[in-house]
Amino acid sequence: MLVMKFGGSSVADAARIRHVAEIVRNRLNRKPVVVLSAMGDTTDHLIEAAEKAMSEGPVSVETSLEKISATHLFALQKLGLSKMFTPELRELLSELASLLSGISLIKELTAKTRDYLVSFGERLSVRVAARYFSAIGINARAVDSWDAGFISDSNFTRAELLPESWEAIPRALLPLVEGGVVPVVTGFIAKDANGVITTLGRGGSDLSATMIASACKAEEAQVWKDVDGILTADPRIVPNARLVRAVTYEEASELAFFGSQVLHPRAMQPCGKTCTPVIVKNSYHPEVEGSVISPTLPPGSQTVRAITTRSNVTLVDIVSSRMVGQYGFLAEVFSTFAEHKISVDMVATSEVSVSLTLDTEYDIAAVKRDLSRIAHVEVKTNKAIVTIIGLVNRSSVILESAFGVCSSLGVQTQMVSQGASKVNISFIVDGDEAGTVVRGLHKKFFEG
Questions:
Q1: In the CATH hierarchy, which fold is given to the domain comprising 304-446?
Q2: Which of 28, 40, 202, 413 is buried most, with the most CB atoms less than 10 Å from its CB?
Q3: Environment class of 286 (CB within 10 Å of its CB; exposed 0-12, middle 13-18, buried 19+)
Q4: 0.85 cut: is pTM over it?
């Protein structure tokens, strides 16, 4: 069995859906399950429709609905299918119209309602795709994720799947697969125990695919993107970045956390439990081998796997002689961040100081005021994290080379940290220096 996930850009229009159908048809002998995101910008259009409904009232609903309907109707027409919506699609659009009308009347969009709203993108997408698959001879069936066994908690906009899903998913999907049906499943969405629609948050569609693959003990999960796979660096920074053939789950998670947009760390969790490989492939160039994410690396793997960077980082230096020999000081520091609901990324400590990084989106003025009662606090903005993903047993060699590159470029590193996963070495530089450093490191480690 094979699980194939296609993102929004891969099913953005009729031409892309036709292309995806050929990819699926060429793999029918592997018993595929297909997971789809919403078509193109449909999710954005749904949010826009809700905002207009709140600001402009019922008068905007019909116009917004026409815009969303047109995307899917035009795709159906270009695919050579009926010019009329099927009863199933008409029913969904009618349901969406009722929801938008309700939003226009109460002038409110709660997290619960938002999840219900954006779910229409995936629900429409799988029905359009499944209809075309069937028209070209693929025995396909559109399946909403809750009918595929996805059960979540009620944490709207960022729900987590419940343990019951591990048994419910194979119970729902395996009979279809064994019966020769290609299930076309909605990614990103689920229902809680009360039957209320939820969304799985960042990386939710990829998580849907890897959860199906792991729960059903599939041979592999394929995540089809608009890139060839995981690259040695961001091609916007390093135009000659190369394809990384293989990384471990831990390395892929670190790459995602520190700036790579290929896969979210959450998506790796189910496959990490069952050692199910994840293949990242390009739906625009299906002949490219792609990148394999698995528990271990093949023999002879390169010391450094990839280099990534994350911008808009704030560096906070906290210095106090009270730290010396005192228990509870760090607990007080981090509890202050917790009180203000601020997530900390990198951390480095010494005998009298602790340095840490945060996303710039946080307003830390109040945190600085609270911490200033126990320590001297200095906040530095416009920083960037540069991360090297590689073999921990060669960390001394990696650090020597990295600092040599920074020295030759005249760049001062301002903080260094090696993660507990033992696969990453990260350091802080000024934001406007990050691109230069990444290019220098890439030249050192990948270009001889």
A1: VC0802-like (3.30.2130)
A2: 40
A3: middle
A4: yes
